[in-house]
Amino acid sequence: MRLLVVTAVAAERDAVLAGLTAEVTVVAGGVGPAAAAAATARALVRAEAAGTPYDAVVSAGIAGGFPDRVAVGGTVIGTRSVGADLGAESPEGFLTLADLGFGASTVECDPDLGRALARALPAAVAGDVLTVSTVTGTADGAAGLRRRWPDAVAEGMEGFGVATAAAQAGVRLAELRTVSNPVGPRERAAWRIGAALAALTSAAAALASLGP
Fold this sequence. Notes:
35% of the residues lie in helices and 27% in strands. The protein is α/β, with parallel strands linked by helices.
């Protein structure tokens, strides 16, 4: 299977490459959903034009984890990629795109890919992976996300961009992340980026389990 993996930054790309046991294309598309969507769409279009289209796209990298769902250093498999802050504020609370009648702010991850990853990574936690344009840095912000998205396990900045490009191209999607910090009050000294990148290298070996 032709597989495209999209990370945000070079350190994540290199961590994935270090753990691969199969031939996979890995690109660092940039930080944030817009950069991720543009990089993914470009890679998909170029591959299709060359006559070698991709069969699936994986959004991969490190993330914040919701502490009651996954520990720092843990691995997450997305069931949905969620544009968590895409919508509108109102006196009644946050309104999603669906609430506004403008479409969906979620993209389903491919269940077969998810099951294959879960078999290869039995300790991983499955659930919604939220995409935000501004990283959550307060307890109130984290609580608000959990109220809106009760199935959330982690928060990143690129997944929904990758997912949107994949969905528009009709390509299957998976999201695979390892946790560097808890979602909530921003305590940079408590982040474990090195451990999360090492976990990402270990998790990347599971990409070989994704077959046709």
